[in-house]
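Working notes for the structural subgroup meeting. M.R. asked for a predicted model of this chain before we commit to crystallization trials. I am recording the input and output together here so anyone reviewing the notebook later can reproduce the run.

Input as submitted:
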Amino acid sequence: MREPNGSWSGATGGTARTAAEQDLRYGSGLLHRESGGWPSYFAVTSPSAYRAARPYLDREPAGFGYARLLDWTHLQDIADSVPGGVELIVGVGGGVAVDASKYVALEKGLPLVLAPTIVSTGAIIHSFFAKWKGHKTIDSPDTWPWINFDHAVIDYDLVLEAPYYLNTAGLGDVLCGYSGFCEWRRNARLGIGEPFDESAAAPTADYFRQIVEGFPLTLDSAGGLTPDSVRLIMEAVRDRDAKNLRSPAAPMADHPLWLAAEEINGRTWIHGEFVALSAVVIAWRCEEGVDTLTGWLDACKVRWRPGDVGVAREELLKALEHAPAFMSDASRGNDVRSILRERPITGARFDALWSFLQSA
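Returned structure, recorded in token form:
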């Protein structure tokens, strides 16, 4: 294993690897083969993830900690429980467990391996992880810590045990980037800001189309996910950072709305599903491309409707009411010039949105 390389502040020292540079290893039976060669290790996981992964492990960890949320006080408690003699930290689970394992590995100065049980999160391909206090991210993202994990073990058999939507949510986390197109097109139509640049948008648009056209071809005859589906989802999540549309004219407000929702409601949702819902809300508000986006999400088996995602009417309303303040919070480096900030969805406008979401 490589010695851990990381920093408690992204603003100081060292180099965090990009998504394209991460070592992702794929295969059936891979976790059993890999874990057989691990030294004494500590697993950062969740009860459901550990139950799923345990039959695939060649041997038990020296200890494990359950990550309930990403609050740093909670994560420090997990780090303090790592027994002496452990030589490796392994993150086993979804996004919460994976990001929690980064904190523990950095705190203990130990190498890190990721063993995701689902492929719905960018945590698998990012070295950085956020600083959380309860359900709220704090400080500016450019000061958040990072650690370069050794590699990620993506075992097809383990990942395919999860409900399909826990994996296809990864495509929601990619396709939500279409919300930037919607804002830019809307503003250009109204003569606000710069004209829409088709040539600048084309690489990302082609990327989205390749995903939407390619994903259904990976499914089995009954419409179920296959190893090819898992790999397509994971590679789409990895490629997103390089292929996202990047322009000041195309604000990506889908993720800020998700963060605002979790902060104001004090709870969590499946990340890729909520940001997909956020993108639909933005497209609807912009009156641009909402049918295209919902068709793409449905073709990729991504849940986005509030009833499927588990978002109550009052929870979405609170998120949208909180969004303008969240998106303009300079203390956290937020300056999201979105329609959700400048023309909020409240009152009768929210009633119309909710009616649309219930009938779509």
